[in-house]
Amino acid sequence: MYPNIQKAMTRNLKKSQKLVVFIGPVLFLYLFWWIWYSNGKVIDENNRGMLLLFAGMAVFLILSIPLGQWSQRKVMRRQFSRFSEAELERIDRFLETVEPIRGITVTPDALIGAGVMVPVQHLVWIFIRSRTQQMAATIQEMIAVTDDKAEHSLYLGVRPGPFRQADQEAVREITRQLLQHRPGLFVGHSEENQRLYRENFAGMAAAAGRSAAQ
């Protein structure tokens, strides 16, 4: 059912699943070696604790795959509910001929990222946001604000390198494609856009919609 949409929404998630499939068996092999090496005996409390920790991690990793797949299906059903059947079929056909840009794909009907599919006709404002996870990894996101004032976060793949900044060329191309289908879209985290968002979001949404209808 809509295989191209599913592929576009789970591209990065499948990479994580492959890593989990690899790590789970490795942990089990390590546990087997450990038990065999100690003749099946747990020598002290420290070893017992480590054994239980690794066993728990291995079981968790293996169970996380079906749980993750169930969660993905649930997310997709929620995302699909924003579109008509005709729109979903059109999006799926369109995706046969395009490639994602740093993990994000633009169609005339939808802005698609990992686990996210936003209707283009409801877009009001997009901007790039950086956030730091665990004091180390910097995550680049494209934030898409829709006319219900909801914020949708799309992970934006970054250029390789020590500073790992958002690929500005990719951002410009995604923006250019979106403006083709939504010419009134507000772009960038400028002071004026922030002020409109705070003080007159209804007018902001109306302006985006009027420009798109012209």
Taking strands numbered 1, 2, ... along the chain, how are they ordered across the largest sheet? 6-5-4-7
The amount of beta strand, in percent, is 15-25%
Q: What sort of overall outline do the alpha carbons produce when their principal axes are compared?
A: globular
Structural classification:
alpha+beta
Strand count, sense and barrel status of the largest sheet are: 4 strands, mixed
Provide a concise account of the structure shown.
The protein is 55% helix and 18% strand. The chain is of the alpha+beta class and 214 residues long. The protein has a 4-stranded mixed sheet with strand order 6-5-4-7. It has a 3-stranded antiparallel sheet with strand order 1-2-3.
Helix-strand blueprint:
Layout: H1 3-37, H2 45-80, H3 85-94, E1 105-106, E2 110-113, E3 116-119, E4 123-133, E5 137-146, E6 151-155, H4 168-181, E7 186-187, H5 191-199, H6 201-213
Parallel strand pairs: 4-7
Antiparallel strand pairs: 1-2, 2-3, 4-5, 5-6
Helix pairs in contact: 1-2, 5-6
Description:
The chain is α+β, with helices and mostly antiparallel strands. The protein is built from six helices and seven strands. Strands 6-5-4-7 form a four-stranded mixed sheet. The longest helix is centred in the N-terminal third of the chain and has 36 residues, at 45-80. It is globular, with a radius of gyration of 22 Å. The two termini are 34 Å apart. The model has no long low-confidence stretch (mean pLDDT 78).
